[in-house]
């Protein structure tokens, strides 16, 4: 009988695995080293050999009174080479419990050579690959773990025999090039994202000064880049190192002023390319512009009111102001406030403040003189007449008690002279109707379109009508035959099957399931048709597929899974107008 025990696992780190086949021993296994597929180690173990001997003979251990079955044990030591397996199990080669030759699971991670080894194996150095580039034998930048590498980017990695050059894979795999486990040449999955190009030595030859012959000469250099939220907009320009960069179009222009997007960032990242484009080269500074000449062909007529500073809501899209740029002679320039969100800058920065922000809020129209002539009363030719007279005035001071709901109409005076002119707005249906009683959504204001629909103009007053009669869902004199509950069924109802489980039944009855021949304790599922009333929508109610609600007499049915999950959400409340509610509800007709 042979028994093997470990006596020594000398700590040593295994290097290149390509040792020549020989009787020599590879470096001893070390629990602190890292091993991968194909790596060799050695491990020493004890071998106990049991040999039968004659009881009572000298050197034959003999228990008292024993005359047969005696044996002697001889202990020797053996050293063998082991190779880490390929494939997924190679991940266990340096883990506890997988030490070669001794641990319980070692054979899953290591392959043992049958012959013993002695001495030390002489390593055969790996061959040096060809130079990676015929144009330049120098080494690109060294690999740095955690770096975001671009597709086809090249790195170098120094080894014991030579320095290797690797190329990062194409997108999207390039996103893994700097991750743990993908280190070129050593990581477990490096071959998935890196390609070995060859060897290198020294550094890449320095390139000559950049030739700008292919770039447009932009003349003087604009201001250098500065960080700031909303600091730059589309087509704004900055300069750095003699190059001119132009801010990209929306929405990428939102990145132009953010930290990390500075053109040719010193940290080596290239996120700036998402926001900026090189458009030319420059030298010196931009020459100061001359005092603006007031070209008669660019004259806009009368001047609007002078700009007055205020809050970010002082001006809205389309508002016009003027700025005095010369008092002798008097000369003014007219500007128009841009659309939202840039309109938020219009009250904060004067059009000619000289700051970057004023260009974000205002657009220069041209020179102006005098004042804008008073306009005539607006004509309503483009609006439709709302028949029946004008609805009640919109009363901003009593919104909380006005009770405005979806479909309600109000009128708003837009001109008092020479005759009074009114327009009619109607409160939107659905969830948007909640805005109709909020001051920020005043009809005709900045956010009017979110709560109100412009219906047309009106004249006179609405003739008094009789008080509206709300739909009354009365009781039916007799419940329909199919309805098991409630006892009294409304005129407008819907059928809903309700199943009750575990209803006690007589085991011998034909409709009572009894597969095991029981005499007591039998139950069954009972399905009944109920007839609930069709009521108005409530955001506090829980709706299931098939449930029905109404608006007036119009009925809407909750859709099947998964759409019924939105039926109770107020944003999906049924409406008489088109909207997202159709994702959860279907119109199915009218109540009687």
Number of helices: 4
The biggest sheet amounts to: 4 strands, antiparallel
For the biggest β-sheet, the strand order reads 1-2-3-4
Calculate Rg over CA atoms: 44 Å
The general outline is flat
Distance between the termini: 97 Å
Give the DSSP E fraction (strand runs of 2 or more residues): 25-35%
Mean pLDDT: 80
Low-confidence stretches: 1-22, 207-213, 289-293, 375-379
Helix/sheet category: mainly beta
The counted number of beta strands is: 22
Features:
592 residues; mainly beta; four-stranded antiparallel beta sheet; four-stranded mixed beta sheet; 4 helices; 22 strands; 26% strand; disordered N terminus
Structural features, described:
With 592 residues, this protein is mostly beta strands. Helices cover 3% and strands 26% of the residues. Mean pLDDT is 80; it is low at 1-22, 207-213, 289-293 and 375-379. The termini are far apart. Strand 11 (320-327) and strand 12 (330-337) form a beta hairpin. The strands form 7 sheets. Strands 1-2-3-4 form a 4-stranded antiparallel β-sheet. The protein is flat and about 135 Å long. It has 4 helices and 22 strands.
Quick rundown:
The protein has 592 residues and is mostly beta strands.
SSE diagram, text form:
Elements: E1 2-8, E2 40-52, E3 71-84, H1 106-109, E4 110-116, E5 154-158, E6 163-168, H2 190-193, E7 194-200, E8 237-240, E9 243-247, E10 276-281, E11 320-327, E12 330-337, H3 358-361, E13 362-368, H4 399-402, E14 409-415, E15 421-427, E16 452-458, E17 496-504, E18 523-530, E19 535-536, E20 548-551, E21 554-558, E22 585-590
Parallel strand pairs: 19-20
Antiparallel strand pairs: 1-2, 2-3, 3-4, 5-6, 6-7, 8-9, 9-10, 11-12, 12-13, 14-15, 15-16, 17-18, 20-21, 21-22
